[in-house]
Amino acid sequence: MVAKIGAKAPNLKISNWVQGLPTNIDKERDNVILVEVFQVNCPGCFLYGIPQAIDIYSKYRKEGLTVLGMATAFEDYDKNTLQNLELLLSKGEVIGETLKALGQYGHLMQENKLPYKIPFPVGMDSLVKETGMINQERISGFIDANVPDFNAYDEHSKAEMIEKVKQYLKSKERSAETFEEYALRGTPSSILIDKKGVLRDVAFGQNEFLEEKIQNLLKE
Predict the structure, then answer these.
(1) Are 68 and 109 in the same domain?
(2) Of 118, 138, 128, the residue nearest 52 (C-alpha)
(3) Which H or E run includes 98?
(4) Do 33 and 99 belong together in one domain?
(5) What is the per-residue pLDDT across 167-179, written as a single tens digit (0 to 9) for each?
(6) What is the C-alpha to C-alpha distance for residues 200 and 191, in angstroms, rounded to an integer?
């Protein structure tokens, strides 16, 4: 089942809490919850998503906001690993495209380390090895979750999309359980849950309205 806006938010499927005490959605009731979803090998996550989440955490953590970080992997499985997440959190070390981009923009300290520390709990999404057949049911399920306007496509575009999905599913080594349950489209992504545990917003990419949405939820 895919998480729905306006319905109870499912717990995060975390394989390891790498930083902070283990927690989850059901343990943070009465607080507004922001889940910042990132990949270790994702430059935009470290240029935009995570710094924004840290800023929001520093402003609202004493006003009833819980911020949780969740590393996931839907590509580059050799880089988006638990081991590289542990290096990031323990030593500030970045890898791959993240290292390249942050270095290019002068966003690293000596020894190629992050200039900031993530201050909130961070866990690793549960990754399950792909073993299933690529059948019509899987293709349709993926399209339903990720391409909401698919039925508006013309027949040629539908056929192209089905082929793209088929090739993507064939290339997948693992399924990231939380990433898929929340039908995320990439990283960075943010998940917002209200004080009653209801899913209120899911957003992908730079999110200029995130702080405003959190302010409104804190007032409820």
Answers:
(1) yes
(2) 118
(3) helix 96-104
(4) yes
(5) 877 777 788 999 9
(6) 8
Q: Among 20-29, 142-151, 205-214, where is mean pLDDT lowest?
A: 142-151
Closest CA to 108 of 98, 96, 120: 98
Task: Write down the pLDDT at residue 69.
Answer: 98
Half-sphere exposure of residue 6: CA atoms within 13 angstroms, side-chain side? 0
Same domain, 154 and 93: no
- The parent domain of residue 112 ranges over 14-126+179-215
Percent of the chain residues past pLDDT 70, beyond the cut = 99
In a domain, 220, yes or no: no
Q: Does residue 26 carry a pLDDT above 80?
A: yes
Q: What is the mean pLDDT of residues 62-75?
A: 96
Rounded Cα distance between 217 and 51, Å, is 21
Question: Do 99 and 199 belong to one domain?
Answer: yes
Query: What does the pLDDT read at residue 132?
Result: 66
- Type of residue at 196: K
Instruction: Give yes or no: residues 62 and 161 share one domain.
Output: no
Domain assignment present for residue 46? The answer is yes
What is the number of domains present in the chain? 2
Q: Between vectors from CA 38 to CA 36 and to CA 39, what angle results, nearest 5°?
A: 165
Burial status of residue 215 (CB atoms within 10 A of its CB: 0-12, 13-18, 19 or more):
middle
pLDDT of residue 20: 96
Answer whether residue 87 is part of any domain.
Answer: yes
